[in-house]
Amino acid sequence: MKILMAGALSRLGINYIWGEPLRKEYNTDLLDLVPLIASSNGNQDYYEQYIYRVLMNGKYDCFFFYHDAVIRCFSEQFFYNIREKGIPIITYHHDDEPDYWYDYSSQYDKFFSLVATQSLRGYLKRVEAGIADNVIYLPWGYNPEIFFKKGNVVKDIDVIFIGTKKDNRVAILEKVANFCMQKNYNFKMVGQGWEQVSSLKHIVSKPVSHVEMNCLFNRSKIVINHGYMPFDEAYQTKLRHFEVAGSGAFQLTNFNPELARIFKEDEEIVFYYNDADLLTKIDYYIHSEERENIATNLYNNVCDNHTIYQRIRYLFSYAEKHLEITQKQKYQPKVKRIHFQEKNAVDDFFQKAAAGSINFRDWQEDYIHITIGEEENFRCCYDGLYIPKLPTNYLIRVKSFLQVFGDKANYIRRGVENTSGITLQNDMKTDIKNDRLREYFTLKWSMVNLSGRTVPVFNFLISTKELAEFVNYFSNKNTKLSQFKVYNSPILVNDISVYRKMDETMNLKQSEIIQAENQTPIDNQDMLSIFLSKIRHSNSRFAVCGRLNDEQTDILQTYRRLNNNYVGLISSQCRDGFINKLLQKFNNINKKEVLEDMPLALTPIDLVNYAVEFVLLIDKNDSYMEDVIKKVNPFIVVIPLHDSNHYTWSLI
Question: Could you read off the pLDDT of 590-602 as tens digits, one per residue?
């Protein structure tokens, strides 16, 4: 099964618990929505159309949409359109307890083909209401590659709590801190926001990575692991309950009937029932030999039954059985990434390659991708990069997301709300308005001069068979890349973070960085030629809508003699005489009946029959046609010839 997973994968907790395990367990591509949405400048149509293109090009069997922190960015129509295309959508409700979380999450159930919820109460409430047809109960599972039991670790921490400050946690943790101080127990707290609590800030450490968290759990005798709803004392089952268990630690948590169905009380997990009971059990289990036996029993249980891999296998085997998922054929090129910390290292690499001291002719990958920068600030993802099989003299140009405003960044929970940036896709002068920033990166990055445009080298994938020619170009700055042609991919491959110190030094503002959209208009004939050159090798079918002049007609006729992906012209008769009829009848009548009422000329309905992916809109007076075409097939990208700055040009 071929799966596309989309979500706020910049949030490390989402990526390590779902993204990477899903990639290992199934044939899965990952789409991080944070840089995609952050670079859209608030244009919902752009990122929804982007995902449509990825889904269609990749021929995915199903779409796993992890909605945490991003669901409100999408329209209900977006999900409807994907399901209408025969692509089932699966999601997981990470918070679903009644009534607070349930009231929020259940409103989105209708968006999806299958919903899995971690809350038994949330599931049973749907059953009681008769709305559980597409919902299953699936408890959390932990990633055993992140949380695991270490050998020969000294338990030098008596009691630990790891978590974010919440109002309903303050009072009880103050009691724990005072109790441990009286008993001379080593109590440690780790998390965000606790520095605001004067009585606790002296024992609090800053948030840590999940790898460091596992080390702390292994070092601790007792892990206090509250599981409450955010604004009251109602219990909630958390992922952390399974992560603590997976690290082999002993945990004390508030009583939770759902958790008691999964783990045996006092044999695998210990519950407390009030504040006094918590303190009593801390004092008892610090000295009791039972503690390690209980922790070991819990560890064995979760290893055997509660990993994320077991949850993933159950979820998608259920989906295959109940959603009638069909397998499709697809092709994706293999890419070899070569990363360098500094620009000088790239130059050295090319010099050695030109001298013949690097044997790259035996490399098995289809393309080479050269990236530059600090490794932790440069991420690459080739998922969704589906391209036609091109001649070897083609460079593939991809996009890069450049994150700015480092002072706002949260690298553990990077989300749409705290991420800003721009897309690098054309050239440095066009994409980056700020002269200081452009000059800085021109010095930091190796550049390619392509038809007068200065483009970072990491925006290209180079055919392995033509790498020698590319090396020759790079070694001899007087030569040009004229022997190469360029295939433009709409996929955002590189995710780059601006260095925090440089960002603070420059004191950059968004208005200073993003290039103004109003660029010099390009002649329509030139735009038509640009469109045809972009679409020629994509094998995507397209149609033209509007009244053509003689020159445009000649260009298209010449193109059609050499290529078979031009379907035809949407006739003026259809456009002017039948649009209202189409709009009136489409909701209440099937496509065949509408087609019978149309003239024999190319109509919007023919766009479906001929599997058209793009429509080129000639005249700006025909802009209303975009709504008509989207009504017939929302996956069609409508590109206005008269607007060279329109976001749809980047989707070809």
Answer: 434 433 333 335 6
